[in-house]
Amino acid sequence: xxxxxxxxxxxxxxxxxxxxxxxxxxxxxxxxxxxxxxxxxxxxxxxxxxxxxxxxxxxxxxxxxxxxxxxxxxxxxxxxxxxxxxxxxxxxxxxxxxxxxxxxxxxxxxxxxxxxxxxxxxxxxxxxxxxxxxxxxxxxxxxxxxxxxxxxxxxxxxxxxxxxxxxxxxxxxxxxxxxxxxxxxxxxxxxxxxxxxxxxxxxxxxxxxxxxxxxxxxxxxxxxxxxxxxxxxxxxxxxxxxxxxxxxxxxxxxxxxxxxxxxxxxxxxxxx
Length: 272
Description:
By secondary structure, the protein is mainly alpha-helical. It has helices at about 15-35, 40-55, 65-80, 95-100, 115-135, 140-150, 155-160, 165-185, 200-215, 230-245, 255-265.
C-alpha cells in the first residue's frame, strides 16, 4: 500500500472531504446501493459516511490510507443502518450445493464462445450477479463488495471489518461460489456429458481452493493439468470476478453531490 501523502495532513476538513467525495464518491455510492437495496437509503448512507469523515478528519492519524479509513467508516455505518430485508437468507448454500460435481452437462468455457454469444453471456451474467449480490447475507456481501468490487486486499478487508483474515477468506470464497453458480446458469451447456473426473473429488476441491487463493492474491493460476469440469468451474469464476470488477465503475448523482457539499458547511443540519 502506498504511503499516505503528507500534504493532505494540512488540509482543512471541508477541503479534504470535498476531495474524497470526488475521488471515492461514485464507488461508495455503488457500494451503498448494493448494500441498502434502494437509492434513497443509499444516498442517506453516503451522506452519513462523509459527514462522519468530516467530523473525524482532524483525529485521522494517516496511519492507514484515506480510502481504507473512509471504507472503515462506511462498513460501520452499513452495520448500524442494516435492517434485515424480507426474504433475506440467514446463510448461503453448502459447498456441495454450490459446485456442479453431479451435473451430467457442464457449462462451456466462456472464452471459447463466439463473439456475439460471449457478449450476451457477459451481459446476462452482469444482470444476474448484481441481483445475486443484493441477496447475499450481510456477512458475505460486505467482504465480497470490499474485495471484488472496491478492490481492497484480503488483509485490508479484514482490517476494515475487524475480522481475522481467515474469516474473510472463508466468507469471500463462499460468496464467490454463490455468484459463480449464478453466472454458470447463463452459460450454454456442453452438448456431450463431461468425461469422468481424472482425479478424486477431494483433489478437485483442493485445486478449487488453490484457484480461490490465486484470485484472493490477484495472481495467475496454472490450469493446464485440470479436468474439463474444473476448467469450466474456474472459467466461470474468472468471469464472475471480471463482472464484479466492472461493477466498480459508478458516478455520484449530481443532486447528492450538491447536497453533500451544502451539508459540509452546516454538518449538524438534517439530511433531508
